[in-house]
Write a structure and sequence with these properties.
Layout (H helix, E strand, L loop, with lengths): L2 H18 L10 H18 L4 H6 L14 H5 L2 E8 L5 E8 L2 H4 L5 E10 L5 E8 L17 E10 L5 E9 L10 E8 L3
Amino acid sequence: MNKIIKSIIKYLFFSLFLISIKIIPKSLMSLESQENLSVQKDFVQDEEQFNDTSDLISNIDEFINLPDGGTPWDVFGETGMNEYTFEDKEGYEWTGVRPEFSSEIKLLENKKILVQGYMFPLDLSDKQKTFLLLPFPISCPYHVHASSNLIIEVHAKKPVNYSYEAINLSGKLELVPDDDLYNIFFRLKEAKVVLN
């Protein structure tokens, strides 16, 4: 594939990713879409009393076999999510979330950690240099089925072969207090695969 096609595919993939985590400019939506989003938001808020992050966290052990010395996902999941709106340079209004880091996760900032999770690819290759790590296997190639406090953006030291199985990674944890573009709370820098 030539570079232009790859760029277009990457752009479309990231656009779908942004839409999937509800970061869409309201001004680009039709009035009907905005009303549907409002109804969906009300439904989700009603449903959240039954299906909050703690429900997700309680099911992680079914998918993760945390290695000795590994950082459990509930440490990440304790990060609060504060919704906000902002306007970009073109005047579009966006909605996103910002982290409220727990004291426990703050202790891990800029420290080398070990974590196990499932890859969500971002590169157009079998080898991934930048990808997302989740506590659950991916069930859709277009939508991350986890909240921002359960997603780690990984920057690998060397490209990592894509795997459908959980992988162990070590790297330096970066806390991201303000990411208007992707709502990423955590980055794992200089990451490398750790074999069991």
